[in-house]
Fold this sequence. Notes:
Elements: H1 4-23, E1 27-34, E2 39-43, H2 51-72, E3 79-84, E4 87-93, E5 98-105, H3 110-127
Antiparallel strand pairs: 1-2, 1-5, 3-4, 4-5
Helix pairs in contact: 1-3
Amino acid sequence: MQTPSADSAMSKVESYLEETVSxxxxxHSAAIMTADGLPLIVLMGKGEVEKLELAAxxxxxxxxxxxxTSRLKIGQYKDLMLRCSRGHLLVKRISEANVLAVIADRSAxxxxxxxxxxxxxxxxxxxxx
Length: 129
């Protein structure tokens, strides 16, 4: 069970994430989850996805990315991007324990979204300490 101060901290994190998503119209969903697949904060917009399914899928992608980068001896993965026919999934590591996943429209400027996600993860890293 979380303490009241932990609940307050997560509430602040959720508010910050909601503000960020609302400022960028091409981002319609965002989630913070543990690296092993536990959803912490899930903000879903268009195309609702089951929270646990999303968290499990992101955890699987992260684990596969870790294995791949380890086998290739290119270091620890920092982020990944899936460009799809109807949108994009971007996942960025916040810390060893947490990741941020963002679903953006097909029309999104991926350079701009990447800059936003980089900024957001820096702030989330401080907020989640």
